[in-house]
Structure formats: C-alpha cells, structure tokens
Here is the input.
Amino acid sequence: MGTKPIPLESHFHNIGVTLPIELKKDGDAFILNPFFDHNQGNVSTKDFHVVSQGVLLGFLKKDIFKNWNLLSSFILRRNKQAENKIEDPWQYGGVILTTWNRNQFASLKFGIYYNKEFFGNYFIPLIGIDWKINKKNNLFV
Here is the structure.
C-alpha cells in the first residue's frame, strides 16, 4: 500500500509592467517593474489566499568592462493573507547578475539572488548560458 497523494489546487495570477528608462544610446537603463500577484487555492484541505503588491527597481550597466554587463535590482513586496495576519508583511530582496558576451551568439551569466523570506534569509547562486545556435534555435540554461 502506497501513500495517498496530497490534494493540491492552486490559482496564480500576475499583472506587471516593465518600464525601461534608457539613459544614453549605449544601453544603460533604469528598470521599473511594478507588479501585483494573487495566489489562491488549497493544500490537503487547508485553504490559502495571498495577495502581493511590489516593485522591482533595477539598473543595467552596459560594458562595465569589455564585453561585460551588470544588472542589479532591488525588489520590494508587501503580502496580505486573507485568513491570517502576517506578522511582518514586507519582503525585500535583490539580484546582481553579470553577463559576459563571448560574441553576438553566446554569453555566460553569473550572479546571486537574495530574498528575505518568512522563514529567514534565502540565497541562490545564479549561472547561465545564452547561446543562439542558429536562426531558429536558442539555448538558454
């Protein structure tokens, strides 16, 4: 006899807009991204309903060194839960991501993501590849 699966139902909706504000023709930009999230459902007969509003404030610096770009952002989010009062509804975090453009077809990305979660500090190292294989195929890992 196996264990019964835990029933899960989730409905997630997100509305956001990204507004890049280019500083010069060289590509440097401020990025403003306000967003609204609505997540509702249940896990094993326990209902949840969380509403979040937030904003991402970012800055993209092109060519900090030859073929290197830097993206940094600060993320601020306020959460509300219908059933329970959240003791501290504020979450904040950010990303620092560098990109090395090997050529016009391939780049490597390195960085770190941080967020103040409700259970504590949360860090994720970031590494990625963006490779335009041909006109129709792109690999992004």
User: Anything to note?
Assistant: Residues 15-140 form one domain. The chain has one domain: 15-140.
